[in-house]
Amino acid sequence: MVPVLARMAVIIKADHDTNVITGNYEMAYICGLLEKLSGKIPGASAGIYETPEAMQEGTLAALKGWQPQDAREQNLLRMLRAYKPEAMYDEQVQELYRMGLEETRPWQK
Q1: 25-63: burial string, b at 16+ Cβ within 10 Å, e else
Q2: Residue 2 near residue 26 (C-beta atoms within 8 A)
Q3: DSSP secondary structure string for all residues of 16-46
């Protein structure tokens, strides 16, 4: 249930430039989704990062030079850059990251 709620929260937040990430679940989904949308999935990203900080840093490094295609993608990137990861890193964080890697523009469904 938690992964579905975090996914939906991110999809809704992508429409507004004043929203922020509220937890590692949302951050993980955004990391996976932006990596998928950009086509720049880091080699070490077989779905597992050691820490939430490593996930955020790895994703941002992979996205250097990438240009978002629309306002939603810009909002997701802005939120990811501004987020300060929490220490909590469980299987659901990893699951949400993998869910993001499998998505293609979820707001167009």
Answers
A1: bbbbbbbbbbbbbbebbeeebeeebeebeebbebbeebb
A2: no
A3: -TT----SHHHHHHHHHHHHHHHT---TT-S
Residue with tokens 């240009």: 67
What pTM was computed for the model?
0.92
Q: pLDDT by residue (tens digit) across 20-50?
A: 999 999 999 999 999 999 988 765 555 578 9
Q: What does the alpha-carbon distance between residue 3 and residue 48 come to, in Å, rounded to a whole number?
A: 16
The Cα–Cα gap between 38 and 17 comes to 20
User: What sign results for the dihedral spanned by CA atoms 39, 40, 44, 50?
Assistant: negative
Report the alpha-carbon distance of residue 37 to residue 68 in Å, rounded.
9
CB distance 2 to 98 below 8 Å: no
First-to-last alpha carbon distance for the chain, in angstroms, is 20
